[in-house]
Amino acid sequence: MNPVLRPAAIAAIVLAVIAAAAALYVLHSILIPFVLAGLLSILFRPLVSKLRSWKFPMAVCLVVVMLIASGALWGIYTISAAGVSSAIEKAPVYQQRLADLNVQMNGMLQRMSFQMTGRSSALRWDTMLDMQTITSAATSTVGSVVSFLGDGFLVLLYLVFMISSSELFSKKLQAAAGSMGSMDLVQIYDTVNRKVLQYLRVKTLFNLVNGLIVWAVMAIFDVDFAPLVGLLAFLFHYIPNIGSFITTALPGAIALVQTGSFGHAALVVAILIVIQNVIGNVIEPKVMGQSLDLSPVVVLISLIFWGWMWGIVGMILSVPIMAVIQTILDAIPGTRPLAILMGGSAPRTEPVPNE
User: Fold this and answer.
1) How far apart are CA 343 and CA 192, in angstroms?
2) What is the membrane topology here (predicted)?
């Protein structure tokens, strides 16, 4: 067989990729809850397996999972609603503090012999929180909360069906694998579950720790919106690289506007940077190990692609999705070189025997 692809084959591949990307974009409102439910089903699978080993019926397992998932969803909604309500209530105060900060900054620049002329002199920070902006932001936030609750209900619905049919699906997969000659579907399924479960366990644990630390540091320094920013820190730390930057800069920005003290804001940011670097660069990699062997370049590209495709949720899901894709590619002999290129470590090579 000629290894060089014909133009028609190349065109077919390109069209298939374009069609798949278009489908992912158009069907995002259906696919995002489905993917989230799939990840949650993997996260809850050990709990369900343990309950089933104790002879609990599947109905009881579903009730336990729904109670945990619904409680988490309600907690997110409660913290978000309280934070948004507090932000709207304090917006006029923050607008005045921005005006004072604007005067302070202009004075500092003038003392440093900078002349605020032309466009620069028209830059006023206090206009960032005028009432029109506040109303628009509040409306957008309420819409996002309503959308989040709707998606959350759909995720729970998908989750019920996935968990209730998980045992039957495993049996079907084994039956299907029996008729497959070269590809072990059960092994692929187990590998995907193992990799994603390890990632979700470790990442969720450390995200929870990071969120609580951000909450605690902001509360200790009496910075506003500590619960809301702590929740955002928990969620945004699923986003590689960008998430830690956002959840470090945001508390500093709030502290700066609230107090008008650069030293106070810098201290908050410095403490968070030190703690998050220790957790993210020292402790977490040791615990995570090589559960997801993805190249940093692949992580960056997937972050950009899925962020463009599905927004913030896509950025959060980018790493697990790429881990699943890499595992599937690695199981197919024809696409195994692509899986090796996606890896973050050098592939193992067998030693060449001496003649």
Assistant:
1) 15
2) Multi-pass membrane protein
For 137-183, write each residue's pLDDT tens digit. 555 655 555 566 667 888 999 999 999 988 888 777 777 766 655 45
Element housing 139 (H / E):
helix 131-164
Q: Is the dihedral of CA 216, 222, 226, 229 positive or negative?
A: negative
CB within 8 A of 347, min separation 6: which ones? 340
Phi, psi of 129 (to 5 degrees): -125, 45
DSSP state of 117: -
Residue type at position 325:
I
pTM above 0.85, yes or no: no
Q: What is the spatial distance between Cα 345 and Cα 338, in angstroms, rounded to a whole number?
A: 14
Hey, where are the domains in the chain? Answer: 26-164
**What is the residue type of 200?**
L
Record the tokens describing residue 46, joined without a space: 């050990």
